[in-house]
Design goal:
Layout: H1 2-15, H2 57-61, E1 64-71, E2 82-87, E3 90-96, E4 102-106, H3 117-128, E5 132-135, E6 141-142, E7 144-146, H4 149-153, E8 157-164, H5 183-197, H6 201-214, H7 219-229, H8 234-247, H9 253-264, H10 268-281, H11 287-302, H12 311-324, H13 333-343, H14 347-357, H15 365-385
Parallel strand pairs: 1-8
Antiparallel strand pairs: 1-4, 2-3, 2-5, 5-7, 6-8
Length: 386
């Protein structure tokens, strides 16, 4: 129908070319050239894993707090771990650990540019004193640290947050089968991690291939092999993720990467299935999983594959993503929520959300799309009022 097409016009731009915000991007290694390997101390533009490299003394002296994440009984995961600052029951800031477990909490500047180091420290204290810091990893519980005045004034090192896996957990971000893996395969996996830290992607891949050949039940190794393959050989990555899931059906992370691959191939029904599996394993979800579910519902509705009533589930999913992602590291979530609200003919709320997008979307092409969406919805709102 014409109205439905009008509502979803900008959606097609938003979701084109597999626009899930956590899709893997290429990075440039220190030695130059292009690498598809994911390095633990890299900063990947356009990716939610925008975590920080080790900070120098000057950075440590400014408006920053520093800490570490440790996983009880396990080496650190290769993937960055989200760390949330929660104030009055709401997530106020999210950062990510690097490959060594370190993380940095930076100043939140709500009132324009900061002029001096003392301004930064005051901002940090104003925003975060009394707030709690905890890591989030599916299937694990986190210890927490309450930020005190001395952290902002004298001691920016806040300590170590420990993640522990309860006995009754279901799905998990780390494979539960790793404890029974052949020792030789484990040594190769550890060597692969060292090669990964040294930015040697060819050695990483070779180590992982040998590890899974020794023990095909090594779900973590299959998953990391898929990550190495994903950019240049997505079909092989799919096979690796499928083998990881077969080895450990409770392992969540392969489903997250399948969401990326399915979105890139415009397989939104499969995106919904992938996200649904992940949410069955971890009902709390993550910003990325909830985003994928909301995007999948909206995309499927736009082609007539889902009824209007299903949009309410998409709306809830988008709101769940936003609640877990106050800094909008997963780009496009609020735009998807606005498009869903527009489909429900709640034009005023949709426009409000798009206007809020303009407060954090970079100026240029991205903000121009949002402005076009606002203009489009204002026309529909005016027409509905007649």
């Amino acid at each position: 129908m014409k109205t439905k097409l009008s509502h979803t016009l900008s959606l097609l731009t938003l979701l084109a070319a597999g626009a899930l915000a956590f899709a893997q991007t290429q990075i440039i290694p220190a030695g130059g050239g292009t690498s598809t390997a994911i390095h633990p101390d890299s900063i990947q533009d356009g990716n939610i894993y925008g975590y920080y490299m080790d900070t120098d003394a000057q950075t440590r002296a400014g408006g920053n707090l520093l800490g570490k994440v440790a996983i009880a009984g396990n080496p650190l995961t290769w993937d960055p771990i989200p760390v949330n600052v929660t104030c009055a029951g709401k997530v106020a800031f999210t950062t990510y650990s690097n490959g060594k477990g370190g993380f940095r909490i930076s100043v939140v500047n709500a009132n324009g540019a900061l002029s001096t180091e003392n301004d930064a420290k005051r901002q940090m204290e104003t925003h975060f004193e009394g707030c709690s810091v905890a890591a989030t990893l599916a299937g694990y519980t986190s210890s927490s640290i309450v930020l005190a005045a001395h952290n902002f004034r004298d001691d920016p090192e806040i300590g170590t947050i420990t993640l522990t896996r309860p006995d009754n957990t279901k799905g998990t971000a780390l494979s539960s089968t790793s404890a029974g893996i052949a020792p030789k395969a484990v040594k190769l996996f550890e060597k692969a991690r060292s090669d990964w830290e040294a930015q040697s992607p060819d050695h990483v891949k070779a180590d992982l291939i040998e590890a899974v050949s020794i023990d095909p039940k090594f779900a973590e190794a299959w998953y990391q092999l898929g990550r190495q393959e994903q950019a240049l050989n997505p079909q092989q990555a799919r096979e690796d993720y499928a083998k990881a899931i077969a080895a450990d059906p409770l392992f969540i992370r392969p489903y997250e990467q399948l969401m990326v691959l399915d979105s890139q191939e415009d397989k939104w029904k499969d995106v919904l299935a992938d996200a649904g599996h992940a949410l069955q394993l971890d009902p709390h979800g993550s910003p990325q999983i909830w985003y994928a579910y909301a995007a999948g519902i909206l995309k499927e509705y736009s082609v007539g594959a889902l009824p209007l009533a299903k949009l309410k589930i998409g709306e809830t999913s988008a709101r769940n993503s936003l609640a877990l992602d106050p800094l909008h590291t997963v780009q496009g979530t609020e735009q998807i929520l606005a498009m869903i609200l527009a489909q429900e003919k709640n034009y005023a709320a949709a426009i409000d959300h798009l206007r809020n997008c303009l407060t954090y979307v970079p100026s240029g092409a991205s903000s121009d799309v949002v402005k076009q969406q606002i203009a489009q919805l204002e026309q529909l709102q005016a027409g509905a009022a007649k």
